[in-house]
């Protein structure tokens, strides 16, 4: 078994979605801060402290490769992207450096900051899963404090195989985390980001930053 106490972390950016509900082509190519979402978020993972970055492409992979500068990262294609996020999730975990912890995040989260990445890396404990926690709208405004688990998510090196095996359909680590809640540490990141996804047209304003 690997000793993950000092294991470096590979960042895995899942960027294979077609963005069907947006109707603007692959989410990876959405314009953001003078670049594309995939370029900005890959750099955010690197700037936050991930040693290496894996970018998983799917829908329009060749278009994404032509239109972006991802030369500093390992870019892999998932030909099964249409089967659901789990296939891209497994592809990313398989491509990450052997023995590394893996930080998984999604390309449609423009609010991700290097501060969130750094905070999660600092908080991660060996043998566990570390997830960013954001405000839960169900409890917002009440006296109850509850965090909504979101991305990024650090998967310990010792758990990579089991979590990859559990991924099906549109669920990445969800089934494993639900079955093993005692292994999950949720780190409060509400002061750094809101964890919002650009998954519908009413969220496109998130790209105007």
SSE inventory with pairings:
Elements: E1 9-15, E2 31-32, E3 35-36, H1 37-48, E4 52-57, H2 61-67, E5 74-77, H3 85-95, E6 101-106, H4 114-123, E7 129-135, E8 147-155, H5 160-166, H6 174-179, E9 184-188
Parallel strand pairs: 1-4, 1-6, 4-5, 7-9
Antiparallel strand pairs: 2-3, 6-8, 7-8
Helix pairs in contact: 1-4, 3-5
Biggest sheet details = 7 strands, mixed
Shape: globular
* Mean pLDDT value: 85
**Strand percent estimate:** 15-25%
H/E order of the elements? EEEHEHEHEHEEHHE
SSE class? alpha/beta
User: Helix coverage percent of residues?
Assistant: 25-40%
What is the multimeric organization of the chains shown? single chain
Biggest sheet: strand arrangement: 5-4-1-6-8-7-9
Parts with pLDDT < 50 across at least 5 consecutive residues:
none
Concise overview:
With 209 residues, the protein is an alpha/beta fold. It has helices at residues 37-48, 61-67, 85-95, 114-123, 160-166, 174-179, and strands at residues 9-15, 31-32, 35-36, 52-57, 74-77, 101-106, 129-135, 147-155, 184-188.
Provide an overview of this structure.
With 209 residues, this protein is α/β, with parallel strands linked by helices. The chain is built from six helices and nine strands. The strands form two sheets. It has a seven-stranded mixed β-sheet with strand order 5-4-1-6-8-7-9, sandwiched between helices. β4, α2 (61-67) and β5 (74-77) form a beta-alpha-beta unit. α1 crosses α4 (114-123) and α3 runs antiparallel to α5 (160-166). The radius of gyration is 16 Å and the shape is globular. The termini are far apart.
